[in-house]
Design goal:
51 strands; Depolymerase 2 capsule K5-specific C-terminal domain-containing protein; K52_C; six-stranded mixed beta sheet; mainly beta; 32-stranded parallel beta sheet; Jelly Rolls; signal; 3 helices; Pectin_lyase_fold/virulence
């Protein structure tokens, strides 16, 4: 072969990744590194034996070509190149038992069109069988020509379910997943991943079927843009999902099972039914949801049973056309093995949430943060706009610290249901929506939980029976309350918990007032009128 022809073949090999089976037989030896223990120089053929251009393999259908390309790779794995001009695929692209890298020339250039909706007959499925065999997918468009009504995902990644300490999970970058035309068809899921550790999904554009003017997310549409499952203790851990743009999906992200340490950052979902949902965390720790923008029909972020997580700096909207009841952030419970797991020790900070109080044009109520399954969380410096209710603490004995939050254009009030051990401070305004400026004490009660309420003014409420009040509970140090008597039957005791001027009880007359400051150990009188 002439020298110029040799050069052209070598260049083609370096760019087009021609498979070994398709290489010329008269290529000269290349003086590269020696083979271990043989002393023989490797041939140029050997250099490219782990690279396969899918178009060079036989088969009328792309799935057949892909299967042949996978089979041609050595047991240690290799690269399958997917160039422009590939034929349609009427079956799933499968490569199992090997570390494999799928490489294209970029979304819109290297495009694979799947034509079948039969179960298991569309999408790409990779199962390397060993956590030491990483997977890479880069630079592709995966298009479905039909609605995937039988559950096919564009990309399925599956590792073994045994626990792993090997953080060499899959890398999926610069990939477009969509339907035909202008979002006329849908995948059941974008990425469907199982038991992945140390993974990275970045720079993805995932689109389902256009929802048109729907007021609720349609049942016939994409499920999760990204679904992550931890099976049978195998789990999923310490992965990052960033720069994902999801459109017309039920979920941007859906997490299930034994997972922890997942980072969801800088993602967008518009319009979707829900942003990120993890319904069954069962006490697993460590999640990070930050700097995302979700515009949703029903829920923006819902975490049930997880702990030690962060929900910070997100911009969350109720979709303008939604007629559904909407919740911005949900801290809920998960039940497993007869145990109820609460969402605990999480930080919800610096988020901005926009609802539609009164249902807006389409209908449905709006609750900013539903912590009816949350306990021991820090909820701070969030801004809530156009909510019916800002918070729902479920009427349970939860201990959440709620501080420095702001509510604007509230329809009904701060709390749909209080948390009996909530500690609230510096929330603005003190009364929102239809909230009263004061809270009546319970009739006949000797003690009252003042910390659960955002308001700082309380009324006595003993119209017919004499009652001596001995304590006011659940308030942080520095909390100041004012008690106004609307009856003549209430006495405030002077005791170890309430220190009154003069060291004697105060029997209040109607219209009297008493202001107390919580020092931590006791309440100190700072003013009265009688």
């Amino acid at each position: 072969m002439p020298r110029a022809a040799n050069l052209r073949v070598a260049l083609a090999l370096s760019t087009a990744l021609v498979p070994a089976a398709a290489m010329p037989r008269d290529l000269p030896a290349y003086r590269g590194p020696v083979d271990t223990g043989t002393g023989l120089y490797r041939s140029l053929l050997d250099w490219f034996s782990d690279r396969a251009n899918v178009l060079a393999f036989p088969g009328a259908d792309l799935s057949q070509k892909f299967a042949a390309a996978c089979a041609a790779l050595p047991s240690t794995g290799g690269t399958i190149y997917l160039p422009k001009g590939m034929p349609p695929a009427n079956g799933r692209l499968v490569c199992n038992g090997k570390s494999v890298s799928l490489k294209g020339d970029g979304p819109g250039v290297s495009q694979i069109v799947f034509t079948s909706a039969a179960a298991g007959a569309a999408g790409t499925a990779l199962s390397p069988g060993d956590a030491l065999r990483p997977i890479t997918i880069d630079g592709l468009t995966l298009t479905t020509a039909v609605d995937q009504v039988n559950g096919n995902a564009a990309i399925t990644l599956r590792y073994g379910s045994a626990p792993s300490s090997i953080f060499k999970g899959p890398r999926v970058t610069n990939v477009e997943i969509a339907g035909a035309g202008n979002n006329a068809t849908y995948w059941d899921r974008g990425i469907d991943a199982y038991n992945i550790w140390g993974f990275d999904f970045h720079g993805l554009n995932i689109r389902g079927k256009d929802v048109g003017g729907a007021t609720a997310f349609p049942s016939a549409g994409m499920g999760a843009a990204i679904s992550i499952t931890g099976e049978n203790g195998g789990g999923c851990s310490d992965g990052k999902i960033s720069g994902v743009n999801a459109v017309f999906a039920r979920y941007v992200g859906y997490v299930s099972g034994d997972c922890e340490g997942l980072h969801w950052t800088d993602n967008t979902g518009v319009p979707v039914d829900q942003g990120i949902t993890w319904p069954d965390a069962k006490g697993y720790p460590g999640f990070f949801i930050s700097n995302n923008h979700f515009n949703t029909f029903s829920t923006a972020i819902a975490i049930s049973g997880a702990q030690q997580g962060f929900i910070t700096g997100n911009l969350l909207y109720k979709w303008t056309g939604s007629a559904q009841d909407w919740r911005g952030i949900v801290l809920g419970t998960a039940v497993g093995g007869g145990t109820t797991y609460y969402a605990t020790d999480n930080i919800v900070r610096g988020n901005t949430l926009f609802g539609y109080s009164g249902g807006g044009a389409a209908g449905g109520s709006s609750v900013g943060l539903d912590a009816s399954g949350g306990d021991g969380n820090m909820i701070a410096v969030n801004r809530f706009v156009r909510m019916d209710w800002v918070f729902n603490f479920g009427g349970i004995g939860s201990t959440n610290v709620v501080t420095d939050n702001t509510a604007v254009a509230t329809g009904s009030g701060w709390q749909k249901n209080i948390g009996f051990n909530t500690i609230s401070r510096n929330n603005v305004p003190v009364a929102a929506g239809n909230d009263p400026n004061y809270i009546p004490f319970g009739t006949g009660s000797a003690t009252f939980n003042v910390g659960a309420w955002f308001q700082k003014v309380f009324y006595t409420n003993n119209p017919s029976t004499a009652v001596t009040m001995t304590d006011f509970t659940n308030a942080e140090v520095g909390r100041q309350i004012t008690i106004i008597a609307q009856d003549a039957n209430t006495t405030i005791a002077n005791n170890a918990r309430i220190r009154l001027k003069g060291g004697t009880n105060m029997t209040m007359v109607s219209g009297a007032s008493l202001t107390l400051l919580n020092t931590g150990s006791y309440w100190q009188e700072i003013g009265r009128s009688q």
